[in-house]
Amino acid sequence: MYFQHGYSKDKLAALYFLYRFREDIALDTFAGIMSDNEWIPYLELKGCVGDLESAGLVAALPCEFGQSYRITESGDAMVEMFMTQLPFSYRKAMDDYIDANRERLRRESQYITDWEKQFDGTYLVSLKVVEGHRVLLNTTILVPDQAAAERARSRWHEKAQVLYLSTLNELIGDDKESVSESKDDGRHGNDE
Q1: Bridge partners for 135 per DSSP
Q2: At what angle do helices 27-36 and 42-54 cross, to 10 degrees?
Q3: Does 166 have pLDDT greater than 80?
């Protein structure tokens, strides 16, 4: 099998990226990365992934927010056998991209946003924190306009972890302060 040009090269490139990334990735995110870096055109990547899934080289994983993909053991073996068919500079460019963007890509896959315009011009913005295939936090806010919806979506990736931890702390955290305040005001049940 010759991989340097054409569709087969695109399949190997897609496999190589997944091999090096080692995390689940949404198809749209994956296709955007590959086309933005001019490694594989957007629509061709989507076709490649379908073929790779049919061949058992990648696995589609249903998630709350859609579907993500990861390389299988068979895919790993295929990359290990044929990776040298991709030019070193091509592999290095992917390696460098993954190393530089791993945390951002992880956040993008863990902090999910969506919006929906309402009949009155307001926007419902859906914000989720997911881990693997489990939704840890899911909230929807109503904002007055598209600009506010865009701000909420862009800030979610920066603030989601803090907001998630704050929500957990507020709802199920230790209530020591509340307990000490009740002791001080004489309402703790001691009638001495």
Answers
A1: 130
A2: 130
A3: yes
